[in-house]
Amino acid sequence: MAALGSPHRPLRVAIIGSGPSGFYAAEALFKTDLHVEVDMFERLPTPFGLVRGGVAPDHFKIKKTARAFEKIARHESFHFFGNVTIGRDLSVDDLRRFHDAILFACGAESDRKLNIPGEDLPGSHAATEFVGWYNGHPDYQDREFDLSQEAVVIIGQGNVAMDVSRILAKTVDELRDTDITEKALDALAESKVKEIYLVGRRGPVQAAFTPHEIKEMGALADCDVVVDSRDLILNEASQIELNKPDHHHRQKNMAILEEFAARKPAGKSRRLHIRFFQSPVKLPGRERVEAVVLEKNELVGPPYKQKARGTGIKEELPCGLVFRSVGYRGVPIEGAPFDESEGVFPNQDGRVTDAETILSGLYAAGWIKRGPSGVIGVNKADSQATVNSILEDLPRLLPCPTPYTRRVRELLESRGVRPITFEEWQRIDAAEIERGKAKGKPREKFTSVEEMLEVLDKTPAATQNE
Ligand code: NAP
Containing domain of residue 187, as a range? Predict the structure, then answer.
């Protein structure tokens, strides 16, 4: 039999997930000297994962990453299967029949919990739900956020918390020319939100946001930014962390926060209060959230390992809307091992493991491999590293018995599943762009799978790439 990766027997890889780590893995595979075929599976009819459904609509430059992914998708040996859920429409064992290697790049679709009383009351939401809602993700269109509230508290100070704060703080005019959904724009136009509290459990040096994101907060049309200079007084360990020569982003964050603290409020309609050293301990409320009880923290431990410790001093901050933005979490897929404590697929250098044993032919990349950290570009090197592991393992990979993409399609169709090709996605894409034109937006997204399939029924198909 011809060797895997030869012209007569290309290496066949199934990639689960069409976000950045999936596309970077496809790119790394196509850049090798091998003959490779990639079948990429995506639960939604639309590709690009967080670039479409997570990146904030007003971050145009990051949204443009999708163009690089489109280029990868044009490779003749790339096949997109949108609208296919692995673990439901196809099992991992099914995939093994058609692919020599399976690479999970399915990200982190759920959110971490705070584990405090009141967390599940109405009015308390995971930030990821709000992000999915304003970005038109079909899973979150039925969510309702009570924007008639004047005070909103956002827990956590990562870039997701920054996105949520910014979307709440911006005027509708600042969002109108983005691809935020019309539904979200209409709801935000009625927003009564005035006081936005962005609360971090540790200090300004440990904050997870990045300089570009914090700087934007100082340039909002109708929202003052409020920082208490007492929060910027550092203990010795934080000063050491700040002074580390390669900690440029921390030094920049600090300089921006100092400038904010020195500002006088300009009397704008909204205020964004950036607070440090406070942890939520309870969300009181009978029918719904009425407040957040925050406990003042102090930092303990050596530099770079400082933890927040409660001082017992508490404050009750009245508010009717809370967003918990303390990180994403992966979700299991039947047929693959899952590490419940970390919310990832256990792995060694991207090779999926079960009780420390490497499972031949199963790989992971991106957030499901290493946890939900790092900006989009970080996934490029991470996916490359997993592809390197596949290449090292190549002589030991068991060739699959049915190495044909068309057979995957036939199996899906026999099960009544309607897989979406990349060409079909491009028709959905063109229809969204067309809908957006009249409103001066880059696109008006379809927000349900039904609407997307309807578009395909109405628009003519070009020749398919199989
Ligand atoms: P993140 O960067 O990990 O931030 C999580 C935040 O939650 C941290 O401030 C963390 O504080 C806090 N936290 C965790 N557990 C907590 C608890 N029990 N109580 C209170 N606070 C708690 O996560 P993220 O914001 O979800 O972002 C995920 C990744 O996506 C990041 O790498 C981010 O940079 C990236 N991203 C980038 C952009 C962009 O480039 N514009 C936009 C969105 C997301 P501690 O530090 O104390 O743990």
Answer: 113-326
